[in-house]
Predict the 3D structure of the following.
Amino acid sequence: MTTLSTRPTQTMTVDTAPPPAMRLRELVFGAACAAAVRAAARLGVADALGDTPAGVEKLAAAVTAEPQPLRRLLRTLSCYGIFKERPDGTFAHTEMSRMLREDDPASLRYIALWCTEPWTWAAWPHLDDAVRSGDNVFQELYGKGFFEYLHQDAHESAQVFNRAMTTSSRQSAEDVADLLDLGGVSSVADIGGGQGHVLASLLEKHPTVRGTLLDLPDVVAKADPRLRDGGPLAGRVDIVPGDCRREIPVSADLYIVKNILEWDDHSTLSTLRNIVAAARPGARVVVIENLVDDTPSMKFTTAMDLLLLLNVGGAKHTRDSMVERMATAGLPVGEIRPVNAYLHAFESVVPQ
């Protein structure tokens, strides 16, 4: 006679993490993942896929592609959580794939394109040379500096860069506006502020504050429409074309410097010292930067750090390196606060 065991069933746990050899293989094929994201963004697959799952034939017709290669592309992306392949063979959106849509509020489409532009594929194999020399490899590769090349020889890439920077600035502007207390502040200067999205967000939130936007002439010529003539904030804004590394002819109660101190040390210190020279004692200075020792975003920020080494010889900062450079320029750092998962704010007051 057979008796049934009364012992509780033991649940087998399986370690799904890949072994080190497989993980390393996955990492060295990382270019395939980046290329797949770029291909999906250029094809517009995320835009073609709506809220309802769709078959690959329908998607292929919408983006003018062959069904079987498109299935292979989507299968690869699905491994990383970008799109989801369903049991019936159709594909559906995931949170990440929606960010490749151009109309998504959190869209990263242009940032994905920017980080995979043609020049990046040419530069990455020379990372060892950059590490040996400590300088960028762009001049040797292209015969001119990065920004010269971008605006003279790679107009499409320059447009992608502008769209990517605009996207990034818009998405963080509200976070910065929510973080900063403007009590007692009547004037704000956004130094190297690009198109002025942070400044516009601050002025919308604080209707009694005036603002100044300073950046290179070609940049401020394309300032946020809210700040330009005819815009709702134009009457409270001065737009000043200039190079913050040379001079900052602006007096304000609060100076904001966001994501521009990524050059060589000389340029970084020049900018900070120019603020000290222009500011009255007691003025606040808030420097906002990505950090390479910010644990939640280190994979992103350390990759950007290496890209900066390659293209301009620049670098992302650690907390200590940012504090050191600000102190050297005459700006002792007080509080350091997170803005969001990617940014930190370093607060200082111009001393007497």
Confidence is low (pLDDT under 50) at residues 1-14. Residues 192 and 215 are 5 Å apart (CA to CA). The longest helix spans residues 155-179.
